[in-house]
Amino acid sequence: MLALISFFVLVVCTISHGKDVLLKKPDCGHQIVDSGMEIRRFAQEGEFPWAVLLKYEGTESYKCVGSLISDRYVLTSAVCVTGGFQKLVGVVLGEHNLGQSAHSEEYGIEKITVHADYKKSSQGNHDIALIKLNASVKFSDYIKPICLPSEGNSLLQAGDQIILAGWSKGTVDEPRRTKKVVVRRVITNEECQQLFAAHKVTINDNFLCTHTLNDYKDCTYPGDGGAPIMLKSGDTWYQEGILSFGATSCGSNIPDGNVRVSKYIQWINEKLIEN
Ligand SMILES: *[C@@H]1O[C@H](CO)[C@@H](O)[C@H](O)[C@H]1NC(C)=O
To answer: Per the similarity annotation, which family is this (predicted)?
Structure first.
């Protein structure tokens, strides 16, 4: 009997360890309209259909972004679900123009999982969280999941351009109520560490830093937290980062610090299996 139990445990462990429940292309990372990495201010309707809005209690209820990675899970930053915001009450999928999108669907929240090593005091390290929606999402032209890279295997190199989608207001004179697009450039962690040194931020391998392009300045703003940092490889979109922290005004020489998603693939996979 003992031998039988041990055998059973062993088999279960092996299966659960080797199991990969994350979506793979072509089941993720595709959209009905696609302007690729082209520089622009706004997304077209249906573009980046995995970018979702987190909805909080209160009037100014949109303060963070997330990304749909399966029919049940949204990836975002830990700050967005533990920070000084109001209570998170739902997730809006398929949004284009804030509060008035024909194709949007709101889901409730079943469970929030924050990385166990994330601490509010730890300057963005492990700033990653998963939101389990209260029902399975019905994918549509406007609601689709993005692919994730494989563990430890970032497709990005310093100098590469990346793209981010969100709904932050941007500068005061340029309100952006429509899903916006920010194009930025990946920098090395060494350069990032130098730029953050004065701010006592430590950049380790878990970070992916981005800066403005050399000839085009576009920035993220408060409200973009948790937004997906994306790259198109072949015909498929991958999420390489999660926006974590940066400057509150454009024009400074401060980069954005993002979670490097390829460092957390095992964690994400495990949490999806556990939940
Ligand atoms: C999920 O949550 C939404 C929004 O709170 C609610 O309208 C819906 O009825 C819930 N669905 C299920 C299956 O519980």
So the answer is: Belongs to the peptidase S1 family. CLIP subfamily.
Report H helices in the chain: 2-18, 78-82, 189-196, 265-274
Atom of ligand 1 nearest to the CA of 134: 1
If you search the block for the tokens 């006592």, which residue do you land on? Answer: 200
In contact, 182 and 170? CB cutoff 8 Å: no
Is the backbone peptide bond immediately before 26 cis, with ω within 30 degrees of 0? yes
Indicate the pTM of the whole model: 0.91
Nearest CA to ligand 1 atom 14: 134
For residue 155, the model assigns a pLDDT of: 86
Please calculate the CA angle 182-240-38 and round it to the nearest 5 degrees.
Answer: 35
Ligand 1 cavity residues, CB under 6 Å = 90, 106-108, 134-135
Supply angle C-alpha 151, 121, 239, rounded to 5.
25
First vs last Cα of the chain: how many Å apart? Answer: 30
Transcribe 30-71 into DSSP letters: --SS--TT---SBPPTTSSTTEEEEEESSSS-EEEEEEE-SS
**What value does the CA radius of gyration of the chain take, rounded to a whole number of Å?**
19
C-beta of residue 227 within 8 angstroms of C-beta of residue 166? yes
Q: How far is the CA of 59 from the centre of ligand 1 (A)?
A: 21
Q: Of 44, 67, 114, 61, give the one whose Cα is nearest residue 227.
A: 67
Residue 48 contacts residue 38 (beta carbons within 8 Å): no
What is the mean pLDDT of the segment spanning 125-142? 97
Q: What pLDDT is recorded for position 84? A: 76
Q: Which of 132, 134, 138 to mutate to test the pocket of ligand 1 (most atoms within 8 A of CB)?
A: 134
d(CA 62, CA 27): 29
